[in-house]
Protein: Pyrroline-5-carboxylate reductase
Organism: Paracraurococcus lichenis
Amino acid sequence: MSDAPLPPLLLVGCGKMGGAMLAGWLERGLTEAVVVEPHAAAAAAFAGKVTVVPEPAAIPAGFRPAAVVLAIKPQEAAATLPAFARLAGSETLFLSIMAGRAIAGMRALLGGEAAVIRAMPNTPAAVRQGFTVACPGPGVTAAQRALADRLLSAIGESAWVEEEGLIDPVTAVSGGGPAYVFLLAELMEAAAIEQGLPPDLARRMAQATVAGSGALLAASAEDSAQLRKNVTSPKGTTERALAVLMAPEAWPALMSQAIAAATARSRELAG
Ligand SMILES: NC(=O)C1=CN([C@@H]2O[C@H](COP(=O)(O)OP(=O)(O)OC[C@H]3O[C@@H](n4cnc5c(N)ncnc54)[C@H](OP(=O)(O)O)[C@@H]3O)[C@@H](O)[C@H]2O)C=CC1
Ligand SMILES: O=C(O)[C@@H]1CCC=N1
């Protein structure tokens, strides 16, 4: 990865995901960014590090971002994007992380000629351990794709697909995936309390177990199935738990249904 400073960015929407990415980029040495965010409190953590404005009209004259990162809710796109059409058609890249929103619809809202990359990151980007899958739209140049890859690699791993439809299941799996893992921690904590453990200890155990397992998975040469088997002593305790969780109607069916439901919702949000 290049050690050159990241180029100037315009971030539109500094909520949970936009803020997570910005935190990662600042840690990676971003020095010039303007953030359009109507709620000053949402961007308060970045005070003094970036310029925060409440609306596009307040973007400093002469600010020329290399990329405009669209991190607003998909439902806000139609009302928000036309204000940025003046930046389209130049060298500026539009990098959208909006769930569902299709490239063709975004280009239409940006005047028809914009270079748009649709990407799906996740919140571990805040600690530079995100995973983003991106898809280039028509007219995106090799240099713009390289810029997007640099931005996304600065906050974790990145991968590319050429078929835009694949971003919908990506959204369901890695985009929303951290929520499923955090839910696992919540449920383990509640079950620990049910078995008589003090709440404080239950929380620490659940959080450390999820975080430690993630770190082991990241560091190990073994895959997740093998790491699971390594915990499961024959005729032991884990085997009993996994018999419940791995029953066909339990986690295998539920995870499949959950991912299908999220994928379908992403398609609905296409706009
Ligand atoms: N959260 C996640 O883990 C992920 C989210 N995404 C995508 O990222 C996008 C943002 O999600 P998330 O961060 O969770 O949402 P948030 O609601 O936390 O963030 C969006 C922010 O943008 C503000 N906003 C609304 N309208 C405008 C506008 N016209 N100009 C600038 N800012 C505006 C919102 O204000 P207000 O609340 O008033 O609307 C809010 O503060 C979504 O499209 C989502 O699909 C993608 C991957 C993961
Ligand atoms: O829930 C959502 O719609 C967004 C997209 C992936 C994660 N959060």
Q: What stands out?
A: The radius of gyration is 21 Å. The longest strand covers residues 130-136. Residues 99, 171, 175-176 surround A1CAB (ligand 2) (CB under 6 Å). The chain has ten helices and eight strands.
